[in-house]
Write a structure and sequence with these properties.
With 179 residues, this protein is mostly helical. The chain is 69% helix and 0% strand.
């Protein structure tokens, strides 16, 4: 890995952690909208620096969020939340030629993993008054918010940055671009 890739990884890690922290408490809890997740689709454009950056940024952000908002770190959230970002960005990078599908699948990965454990720590939201297991309600809630952040906002960001003029500008900076 060259210096530019390492620097780009640090930039994405910082951006993710700052967005997570700045937009707390919306980034945490049973109904969460992690706007920071809009960075995940950029793995299709920038590759491994986003995969690593979003993973480390989530780790740092979850530690910070746990300390500030809840008075302690939840190791399950730190490990599994970061793992969800690692897997979601890897899926997006692997499926980068089918960007929208990649973003939807990345959001589902996050929803299933994070929703799959978050119900242990928070009361799940009531979804239209439907009777369902608490873990299903939490998975649906987190998946819905991830679809907004990743497949809607993030896909839009990816689309804008993938325009030929933008790609040319990014390449002129010496960045490796995969689209």
């Amino acid at each position: 890995m060259d210096a530019k890739s390492i620097s780009l990884t640090a930039v994405f890690a910082s951006l993710y952690a700052v967005l997570l922290a700045y937009l707390a408490p919306f980034s945490f809890g049973p109904i969460q909208l992690r706007v920071a997740d809009c960075l995940l689709p950029l793995a299709a454009l920038f590759g491994w620096p986003v995969v690593g950056g979003a993973t480390v940024g989530c780790l740092v952000g979850n530690i910070w969020g746990g300390m500030i908002l809840f008075g302690g770190v939840n190791p399950v959230d730190v490990v599994l939340g970061s793992s969800a970002n690692l897997l979601a960005t890897s899926v997006i990078f692997a499926l980068r030629k089918r960007r929208f599908l990649a973003c939807v699948l990345g959001a589902v990965v996050i929803g299933v993993i994070v929703g799959g454990y978050l119900w242990l720590f928070f009361e799940p939201p009531d979804i239209l008054g439907l009777a369902m297991p608490v873990w299903v309600a939490m998975i649906l809630s987190v998946t819905a918010s991830s679809l907004i952040a990743v497949a809607l906002i993030g896909y839009g960001l990816l689309t804008v940055l993938s325009k030929p003029g933008m790609v040319a500008s990014l390449k002129a900076l010496g960045l490796r671009i995969y689209i």
